[in-house]
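Ticket #4471: complex job returned nothing on first submit. Input attached below:
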Amino acid sequence: MESLLIKGGVPLRGEVTISGAKNAALPIMAATLLTREPCVIRHVPALSDVKFMGEILTRLGAQVRFKGDTVQVQARHIKGTGDYDLVRRMRGSICIMGPLLGRLKKATVSLPGGCVIGARPINLHLKGFCALGAKVVIENGYVHASAKRLAGTAMFLGGRAGSTVLGTANVMMAAVLAEGVTVIESAACEPEIVDLADFLKAMGAKIAGAGSPTITINGVRELHGAEHEVIPDRIEAATFAIATAATNGEVTLHGVRTDHLGAVLDKLKDAGVRIDHNGASLAIRRSGKLRPVDITTLPYSGFPTDAQAQMMALMAITPGVSIITERIFESRFMHVSELMRLGAQIEIEGPSAIVKGGKPLSGAPVMASDLRASAALVIAGLAARGTTQINRVYHLDRGYETIDSKLRALGARIERIGRE
Ligand code: EPU
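Support reply: We reran it on our side without changes. The output follows.
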């Protein structure tokens, strides 16, 4: 199993280009199932999750070709049943269900389980499918949805923690081929939903309001092939910006959508980080001493849960007390005990972590538990004295394109060991 070895204490300096967004690319790839015609998707990040989605589409019968950062998919003939084990292994693959139901009027996928960050139910996805007229049955670990016809309707998709990103994506993808008008209230407003809607519109779908809590979809009879370029990954950008601040470096991020980063940049500024915008580039460096900030994760445009762990790593080296509250996932604090191995002082009280920062961190062997927890450990390792060994690097490869080479190019002393 591979590990990353980081010798910390080197300020990151230079320029880095941000890759396409994983969480936009995955549902957009799934959306290609909605048409028999070829689709071309550009600016797709080279990640294990993306390859995995390619494999799922292939097993459904689609032709999938990766070339550089482009993927071509043609789903001329497909079946409605996702491979049980493949779908179960990646939670994001639940978003094949909406397009299968939309096109074939039937979809069968393995019911995704929880994961380390929380229970991760799909009740809201299923509520949306039922509202469109589908019958949903859970049996032998599978969820089956089927309908004679799908009919547009008004529905409310808000849940315990607010809107659902993949639930909104799934229902939107089923509704584009439903008869009549669907209105999704309490829809997720994330940029990844807008990107998916843009791709669906390029395929001939009629969608208004994506990016707002009310999305209106006028069903059409069929969709055609389309080309699309995936938006930049706002979480990768946030991760590099936070790593720059944590190492007291000076890095320019290229290919960024600044308008997708409002909450993160605002908190970084409050924490004493200077951010200079120039079109699609952002220059990051500290403006003075770091200051503690309190953070609460929220659906977009609030502070993203996917950048919570990374921000906690920064707060761990910032003198003072900060309170970080996780409102989206119930157990997304797996990084806390590992950050504490590096010397961070953190106490968990319910949904909040109280970070008493400022004590220098020192390298140690740590274990990555999920994608963003791993990113937090990389940041902490870069800022720590001595050597940090991060085990289970495959979590990072799910969501960060060549993170070790990108960091090395910025001067980090990071190497991958134990390649199989
Ligand atoms: N929820 C329900 N019922 C549902 C669906 C969700 O109660 O049917 C709850 C969840 O348990 C959670 C909240 O709603 O408390 C929000 O979950 P959401 O459905 O929005 O999460 P997701 O769509 O499954 C996507 C990203 C996650 C990201 C979340 C929140 C992808 C592939 N995944 O998950 O990304 O954290 O939105 O922004 O798009 C990551 O990239 O590291 C990652 C975990």
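The mean pLDDT is 96. Closing as resolved unless it happens again.
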